[in-house]
Design a protein that fits this description.
- By secondary structure, the chain is of the alpha/beta class.
- The protein has 3 domains: 228 residues, Rossmann fold, CATH 3.40.50.1100; 109 residues, 3-Layer(aba) Sandwich (Rossmann fold); 44 residues, no CATH class.
- The chain has 17 helices and 13 strands.
- The strands form 3 sheets. The protein has a 6-stranded mixed beta sheet, sandwiched between helices. The protein has a 4-stranded parallel beta sheet with strand order 8-7-6-9. The protein has a 3-stranded antiparallel beta sheet with strand order 2-1-3.
- Strand 10, helix 11 and strand 11 form a beta-alpha-beta unit.
- The longest helix has 19 residues.
- The termini are far apart.
């Protein structure tokens, strides 16, 4: 619909103008800094930053019912900048002009209801939020759209001719960063650091295809991240990992969409998502908190963070029930099929700690839980989910296994409805599916395929035939008829078909 087709009282609300005052706030010394430079850590104490709008309370002048109406009408508005995550412009980054927003089709991913078999398996009604249907096939595009929109505006304001965007990645971040940078290729180029041999061939192909400089180094993601942090501190580059606070803002849109998809009734929802660098779980909690404060929602959903036993520092932190006794200790990760979550020292851990406190305090009860699952459970869940009509990646399998564990531990109540963050498309993880079907996992993964879940192609080549068609060598006449008839008979036997 065009703007003039909407009810006149709402028209002035649909196309927002830049306003607000965004500031970096340090989680360590609590100091504040303006956004007139690219920052990733506090210049005073080196701690992690979060972005906030100092004038957020202006949004409270519009009541929650009106905000819901604005977002619902914007869903029908044909405006490029507002089609994606910036449908919720005022709650994400309201200082970026609409004409500087980069939109490649991210956001507004489908909420797919699990079928009855999956619900029975997990023990709860639930939906998949299919984030693999973003343009680079992962949820990372939400944060990247925001970060690159800011950089697009920043570079033009500061009259910067050229800038290099860098990131460390286990696959998804690099694909997203390279894709969005290539769109702005006139003045932005990208370089990505990957742990050698720890990324699937499909994920490696994405940044290469987008023209990024791909650099592989020995070690795991945490080692790549340390190198990238040093580059960002020493050289003029734009860091695109979740240490970039603009990324967190973009990923908050997942919460906004979930709220809108359920008509803003989320008090009975349980959002389960894998924890990797801890940026996404921070963003999801932060997004729901913003909507609660503005009255867009009236209660908070439960949040279930999920970690593999091979990479579980956040789970270990929250094993201690009492806040003052908790102490964060990084872990040495072991190989995991949930590669994006194979991180032993999450950059956003300080953000998680502060946001969890605020979330539970605002809810008036404990609503954030962290569970641990086994590698076997992750792979089985991914295969089973996709056997039942979904396109879940290994992280989606991790979320499904985690929701099942939360149900077992009594973190959910009868009548709750789960929402699983299936973070990427299963096609990115065909390597692991193939390893599962062929029983090809190395011992350190601790994964053995279930016989009932294995699958492989069958060659149908009837032994009664001595002639077969080939490329450029078609069969004709009786030979072709015999090939068709006998091949059909053998297939019918394999499939157990009955004649009409």
């Amino acid at each position: 619909m065009k703007l003039e087709d909407f009810p006149e009282p709402i028209q002035s609300r649909l196309l927002p103008r830049p306003e607000g005052e965004m500031r970096y706030r340090c989680l360590g010394c609590k100091g504040e800094t303006g956004i007139d430079r690219l920052l990733y850590t506090c210049p005073e104490c080196g701690s992690v930053l979060m972005l906030y709008d100092r004038t957020f309370d202006r949004l409270l002048k519009i009541d929650g019912k009106e905000w819901r109406k604005i977002f619902d009408y914007r869903r029908m508005l044909n405006h490029q900048a507002l089609k994606g995550i910036f449908r919720y412009y005022e709650f994400i980054a309201p200082v970026i002009p609409l004409e500087r927003i980069v939109y490649l089709g991210e956001g507004q991913t489908p909420l797919v209801e699990a079928n009855g078999r999956l619900k029975d398996l997990v023990g709860l009604d639930f939906y998949f939020k299919s984030e693999g249907l973003n343009p680079s096939a992962s949820f990372k595009d939400r944060g990247m759209a925001c970060a690159l929109s800011f950089i697009n505006d920043f570079v033009r304001k500061e009259k910067i001719d050229k800038i290099l965007a860098v990131c460390a990645s286990t696959g998804d971040t690099s694909a997203s960063a390279a894709l969005y940078s290539s769109y702005l290729g006139d003045f932005i180029s990208s370089a990505v650091l990957l742990p050698q041999g720890k990324v699937t061939s499909q994920q490696l192909a994405q940044p290469l295809g987008s023209g990024a400089k791909v650099l592989e180094i020995p070690g795991v993601f945490d080692d790549c991240m340390k190198v990238v942090e040093t580059l960002a501190e020493t050289y003029q580059v734009a860091l695109l990992n979740s240490k970039n606070s603009w990324r967190i803002l973009g990923q908050e849109s997942l919460s906004f969409e979930i709220a809108q998809d359920f008509d803003y009734q989320v008090g009975d929802k349980v959002v389960a998502l894998p924890i990797g660098n801890a940026g996404n779980i921070t963003a999801v909690m932060s997004g729901f908190l913003k909507f609660l404060k503005a009255g867009v929602i009236t209660s908070l959903p439960k949040i279930v963070g999920v970690q593999s036993e091979q990479a579980d520092p956040v789970y270990r932190y929250y094993l201690e029930e009492k806040d003052p006794k908790r102490s964060f200790v990084p872990v040495a990760v072991k190989p995991s099929v949930a590669q994006a979550a194979m991180i032993g020292n999450p950059v956003s851990m300080p953000r998680v700690i502060e946001t969890v406190r605020e979330y539970n305090r605002s809810a008036g009860e404990k609503k954030v839980f962290v569970v641990q699952v086994k590698e076997q459970e992750i792979m089985d869940a991914m295969i089973i989910a996709n056997r039942n009509g979904n396109v879940a990646c290994t992280q989606g399998g991790e979320a499904m296994a985690g929701l099942k564990r939360a149900v077992e531990k009594g973190f959910t109540r009868p009548g709750d409805i789960g929402v699983l963050d299936s973070t990427a498309h299963m096609l990115k993880f065909l390597t692991f599916q193939e390893m599962y079907f062929q029983n090809g996992f190395a011992p350190e993964f601790k994964v053995k395929p279930r016989e009932d879940l294995k699958n492989a192609p069958l060659l149908v080549k009837p032994s009664t035939l001595d002639q077969f068609p080939g490329a450029g060598k078609p069969l004709r006449g009786d030979a072709m008829k015999r090939f068709i008839d006998e091949t059909a008979v053998e297939i019918a036997e394999i499939l157990g078909l009955q004649k009409r």
